[in-house]
Write a structure and sequence with these properties.
Elements lengths: L1 H9 L3 H17 L5 H31 L12 H33 L2 E4 L6 H15 L6 E2 L14 E9 L8 E6 L7 E4 L6 E5 H6 L2 H4 L3 E13 L13 H12 L4 E7 L4 H10 L7 E4 L9 H6 L24 H7 L2 E5 L5 H12 L3 E8 L7 H10 L3 E6 L7 H13 L3 E3 L6 E2 L2 E8 L5 E8 L11 E8 L2 H16 L10 E3 L3 H17 L5 E6 L5 H13 L2 E6 L9 E2 L5 E6 L4 E2 L2 E5 L6 E5 L5 H5 L1 E7 L3 H16 L5 E4 L5 E3 H4 L8 H9 L21 E2 L2 H13 L1
Parallel strand pairs: 1-6, 8-9, 11-12, 12-13, 14-26, 17-23, 19-20, 20-22, 21-29
Antiparallel strand pairs: 2-4, 3-4, 3-7, 5-6, 7-8, 10-17, 11-15, 15-16, 16-17, 18-26, 19-24, 22-27, 24-25, 25-26, 27-28
Helix pairs in contact: 2-3, 2-4, 3-4, 12-13, 16-17, 19-21
Amino acid sequence: MARTAQKQQLFNGRDHSWMQFNRRVLEEAEDPANPLLERVKFLAITGNNLDEYVEVRQAGLLQRIEDGYREQGYDGLRPDESLAVLTGEIHTFVDAQYRCWNEHLLPELRKQGIRLLEWEELSEEAQAFAQGYFQREVDPLLTPIAIDPAHPFPRVLNKALCLALLLRRKRRSSGPLVLGVVTVPRALPRFVRLPAADGAFDYLLLQDLIAQNLGGMYRGYEVLARVSFRVTRNSNLYFEEEEARSLLETIRVELHNRRKGDAVRLEIETGADAEIVERLRTNFELEEDQVFRDDGPVNLSRLMFFYGDIDRPDLKFPSFTPKPLHLSRKAANIFDELRLHDVLLHHPYDSYDPVVDFIQQGAEDPAVVSMKQTLYRTSQDSPVFAALIEAAATKEATLVVELMARFDEASNIRWARSMEDAGVQVFHGVVGLKTHCKLALLVRRDEDGVTRRYCHLGTGNYNPVTARFYTDLSMLTCDPQITERVHMVFNYLTAHAEVDDYLPLLVAPLTMAESFLGLIRREAEHAAAGRPAHIVAKMNALLEPRVIEALYQASQAGVEIDLIVRGLSILRPGVKGLSERIRVRSIVGRFLEHSRIFHFANGGDDEIYLGSADWMPRNLFERCEVVFPVRDPAAKSRIHDEILPAMLADTVKARLQQPDGSYLRASKVYKDAPAFSSQDFLMQLAEAKVDLDAIPKPAAIKPAAKPTTLKPRVKASLKKAHAAD
């Protein structure tokens, strides 16, 4: 019990933190200040987020419980205790999702002439249209099943929408009731658009259209009840790499086996017949608390359809065009430019085209003799793939592709095979480690006769599509020291050839964790000596206990620490005697905050690093990651004077984490601060509508809530842990 109390004093729970993050996304769906279709989009995102969380994290907890694990988590809870708390939070969250849909979004959509109709509400013309659509497009894809000794319960695919029916044979009215199952075709949109007056948009749920035609599919049966349902299965990907002859083949087999994962959640419409619910629950071997009753369309992630289908720019965020890169007068191409200075790009405010152009020019330029690239996720029609295939015809082309990019394994396997067929040397990185670093390296024989390396290092995936709505940073450079170390990282990825020193790069799992701990401790030393000491770190998640404990120590030594963490954070800020100088904020807005930035005041000699890694155990110890320094004065100034100050001044989309892991809007904490949105400001800055003077001074630094006092026993144990380090 004492150990549990210590952990609860030092860390918040991971699962609670994740639910708080998805709650912040739901707040954007609830916020009437956002355009209506953007709110629908945010609600769909919460549904997709929850799907992935249930099939990975909740499924993982169930698996650990079944395997007999009883180790405590960050918050001191065992897997069974965590699962109980998490399941309760998910039920509460699902209720909030459907309240948002039914009480806020549906009425507002109707006011705008966008209607989701019941069959009974359709005009004769609309019903005739829908029936015609059913006959042409839907019926050929349906396979109705009645469960009996000759027809066992079908293998319901993960997250496939289905209809369950309670049937009775017409000729045997006293016989047993039969369960029927119809899978709704995944190939079709979940919403059928109906004829409507100009400017109006009428829709019918596809499952409702199918339901109107059940009689024709189940002739000889009476349909007593029907309901939509969906099952989520365990999608964790496990395999023994040491025993695998081919990593690619093993992943392919596991993808096939994934369909057979155990069920972990049953979603079903409210008001479902009790016997249908019980039969489904029993078949899928689920407990009652694993059944989620949805007061609306099952699978809210499909609401994303409306955002793309409805042509109403007035109900979306205003359009934004990223700023293009203009080369210097002395530069004929990007290589000339990089010999003059590094190029820093902040997406989506800066166009992603220069990154694509850098790779395409490398493929086309006869002076480029070698290309190397890492890929984690990208779009199916990515120009990066096309460029590598083109390069393979005339130069050395090497690709390190991550097969285990969760939920992207199948597409990555297809692309890896296409690359190999085209002559690209394809590697899958270091066995046992995901390759998550974002690197592209070109070797070029320049016009002056010197052979130089040029590289791109980034915080995000090589995906021109997501680059339009993910915030990420790119650096293009020909710095000899950095490019040489990037070359060494590729040697590590393709030949497992390690070296002792990758500086100035921080490379996981080899040097990154200890390097970050050293940088944090250095700030504490500066603070103790009275020199400037400040840490500003932006990331997606903060989960690594050793890093958090180092931050606690730095706070106690006098270091001011501002953390911008979009998602999970188990650190407890604002705790007296532990973290009084630590502030944690999350920004959730139009763009997905995805960049990782690490700023250390370093006694007045600022250092700034960018990279692909969060402060999480998996990034620091279980992945190949690269964090790189920003050395170019103009690039450093942009991050120091523009990007980070804007985020720290945000009072519109920022929320401040409280000691208990909850979040308050910054506007409620800093009530006298002006309304300021960092993302809006950065868009206006890219369009030259504002300048840096528009950034307000950071709000006064004060605790977000009354400080919590750390128990002396826990404080002593923390000091002891650091002494051991």
